[in-house]
Design goal:
Rossmann fold, single chain, globular, alpha/beta
């Protein structure tokens, strides 16, 4: 995780997002790039400004970007990170964008980074938007880390992989290999009642140990909980400070109507969660 993107917006979890980013940078010697995030606008705005788009509107976006820049830079410096030079030495930061990016722009820009750190979406006005998380998740081809509302104190020391035998979780785990190799402990956890067809978790833990990962396997029972709640309860019991989960191993449409582990975790996780689609 040497190159990390952090979209910055004045939402309720922004302090947690910045704290998660600095923890990652300190642990992995990362370059962290901040960029301002705003509501999405049609692509035509950048090229053919509508009459209704006033100077005041443009100034508001510029002010928003300047405020985001200052907040980001203060957090990075307080954590001891240095301004990046041309060589982008370890644990450094930079900034891009004079005006706020929309969600669609963030989704494509994130493709060149190892990971994007975002706030966990919430239902209240002022919470991080689900649209941002899903756009980056599906448009970047790279992992996202969702920071919880309360800033974490540590990251990646005890990692729990929510292994349900799925291709999505296999992909998430593969992309998280730099984190797994750094972790003090990795727990491959399977909830017995919620498994798809595929290799079992004990076999995957064996393979991870072959890479030098300190991995173990645990099988848990849901105890009449839904899949997402069972995963989060398991992570809490195991003392995990980072959860790795494949996103939407059921279809998004099914989860919209009937719920699912991804939806529950995106709404209720109290630790950082790394996801890929």
């Amino acid at each position: 995780m040497r190159n990390i993107l952090v979209p910055v917006e004045a939402h309720s979890a922004i302090d947690s997002v910045l704290q998660t980013a600095t923890l990652a940078a300190q642990r992995f010697g990362s370059y962290v790039e901040g960029t301002p995030l705003g509501p999405d606008l049609p692509d035509l705005v950048a090229f053919d400004m509508p009459v209704s788009w006033s100077v005041a509107d443009q100034n508001t976006w510029k002010d928003m970007a300047d405020e985001a820049h200052q907040r980001f830079e203060n957090a990075m410096r307080q954590a001891g990170l240095e301004t990046a030079g041309k060589e982008r030495t370890t644990s450094c930061f930079g900034w891009t964008g004079e005006s706020a990016f929309g969600e669609s722009q963030i989704g494509s820009y994130a493709r060149i980074f190892d990971c994007t750190i975002l706030g966990r979406p919430g239902p209240e006005r002022g919470d991080p938007r689900m649209a941002t998380a899903e756009t980056v998740l599906f448009e970047s081809g790279k992992p996202i880390i969702l920071a919880p509302p309360k800033a974490p104190e540590k990251l990646g020391e005890t990692i729990v992989i929510a292994w349900n035998n799925s291709v999505e979780t296999a992909r998430a785990s593969a992309m998280a290999m730099p984190l797994l190799l750094k972790a003090q402990k990795v727990i491959v956890m399977t909830v017995e009642e919620f498994r798809s067809d595929g290799p079992a978790g004990d076999l995957y833990a064996d393979m991870l140990r072959g890479h030098g990962v300190n991995a173990e396997f645990i099988l848990r029972s849901a105890r009449h909980r839904n899949s997402g709640e069972a995963v989060l309860r398991g992570v809490e019991a195991l003392g995990g400070d980072l959860l790795i989960k494949g996103a939407y191993t059921q279809s998004r449409l099914r989860q919209m109507f009937f719920g699912g582990a991804t939806s529950h975790i995106m709404n209720f996780a109290e630790i950082p969660v790394l996801m890929t689609s």
